[in-house]
Fold this sequence. Notes:
Elements: H1 2-69, H2 74-110
Helix pairs in contact: 1-2
Amino acid sequence: xxxxxNWSEAKEHLEQYVTAQLKLLKLTLVEKSxxxxxxxxxxxxxxxxxxxxxxxxxxxxAIVINEYTNSTYLGYLAVAGxxxxxxLVLSLTRKAFLKKELRNSLIKKIYENDGRI
Length: 117
């Protein structure tokens, strides 16, 4: 009889332990996913503001080049050419730089509070 009682207590403790571990896992996943989402949204906001600043600076630069060259379109072509060159360089180096950096930052964000990284 005592053995049955011990087994039922052990089973109950094991069920409680598994339940607690599942809750801990859920909370950890929620914490990590919200950290990642918050980082992505804040980065998106920063990049959106940077995009608009770059857009307005580019238009202003194109207008300045137009005034300097007495042309109505040469400034816009020069700015577009600059952006085409930047896109070309980025597309050639994206595997070596962009993917690696994005992957590393995401991995660091996932393991941020584990103490392993």
